[in-house]
Design goal:
Order of helices and strands: EEEEEEEEEE
Shape: globular
Number of strands: 10
Distance between the termini: 37 Å
Structural class: mainly beta
Helix content: under 10%
Oligomer: single chain
Number of helices: 0
């Protein structure tokens, strides 16, 4: 099958919102969003690589995917994020994958 893909669009500027979009997940599945401040590459098990650091990354809990295996939402960039770098990655529950999970690419944003 396809590996899920993460795309973030919009200006990474405080006071604006970016659009976070996950595609190619399993229909009506679940995904877990992780965020950190550093890109890393660590074999996380379950056939996935963790690309968000430092350890442990901040987890946002489960998000439901739509019938096409996608998810899109707006994320406001608050003043607390000014002059920081944020790295995002989803782990997707995929019962057809070895270990039951797949992971997306990571997206790095330098917020101004």
């Amino acid at each position: 099958g396809l590996l899920p893909r993460l795309v973030v669009t919009g200006p990474p500027t405080v006071g604006q919102s970016v659009t976070v979009a996950l595609s190619d997940g399993p229909a009506s599945g679940s995904a877990y969003l992780f965020a950190g401040t550093d890109p890393i590459a660590l074999v996380a098990g379950f056939g996935c690589d963790l690309l968000v650091g430092p350890l442990p990354p901040f987890g946002f809990g489960a998000f439901g995917l739509d019938a096409s295996g996608g998810l899109t939402f707006a994320a406001p960039l608050t003043p607390a994020l000014a002059a920081t770098t944020v790295v995002l990655q989803f782990f997707v529950v995929d019962l057809g994958a070895a270990g039951g999970f797949t992971s997306t690419n990571a997206v790095r944003m330098a917020i101004s």
